[in-house]
Design brief:
By secondary structure, the chain is α+β, with helices and mostly antiparallel strands. It is 17% helix and 37% strand. A hairpin with a 5-residue loop joins β6 and β7.
């Protein structure tokens, strides 16, 4: 029996070269670079383990670029734990596109972790928003870009267990 896999879109510390990427070591495969069709606002937050991005749905926002992986049930469960699914982030099934060699984009669906308004809304209201985009106009998170330590250090306390 073939194990069940899920497509997961990552846009922050789970990407190649970032601190949480080793969690994807058991991923069945790296599918490729991708972008969301839905649009979002993004913020960089600070945690004792480092910086990380948070996105919130925003019809006036921008698509987000990232990477797609095939993961098994166990890896998906570990990602849910990392992202505090249900309390800090919600895992949603969204439409994304993968670039083809022809220049066209292949639509598919993948899970993404989207910040919860009740958890991060105040930090987004304070700003500043992360606004670095790639050549296609997609939000492209990189450590340290558009980082305001005053805002993120203050808002990081919202992440501490209560």
């Amino acid at each position: 029996m073939t194990p069940v896999t899920h497509l997961v879109f990552v846009y922050g510390t789970l990407k190649r070269g970032y601190s949480n990427h080793p969690m994807l070591a058991t991923a069945r495969e790296f599918v490729g670079d991708a972008a969301t069709i839905s649009t979002y606002r993004m913020l960089t937050m600070l945690h004792p383990s480092g910086m990380f991005p948070v996105i919130l749905d925003d019809p006036n926002g921008q698509p987000v670029c990232g990477e797609i992986y095939h993961v098994d049930d166990d890896t998906l469960a570990r990602l849910d734990q990392l992202e505090r699914e249900g309390s800090s982030y919600d895992r949603k099934l969204i439409d994304v596109t993968l670039p083809l060699a022809s220049g066209e984009r292949l639509p598919t669906k993948a899970f993404i972790y989207v910040g919860r308004e009740d958890r991060f809304g105040k930090a987004f209201a304070r700003g500043p928003l992360y606004e670095t985009v790639n050549e296609r106009g997609e939000l492209d998170w990189k450590t340290g870009a558009a980082f305001d330590p005053e805002q993120t250090i203050t808002s990081a306390f919202d992440l501490l267990p209560r």
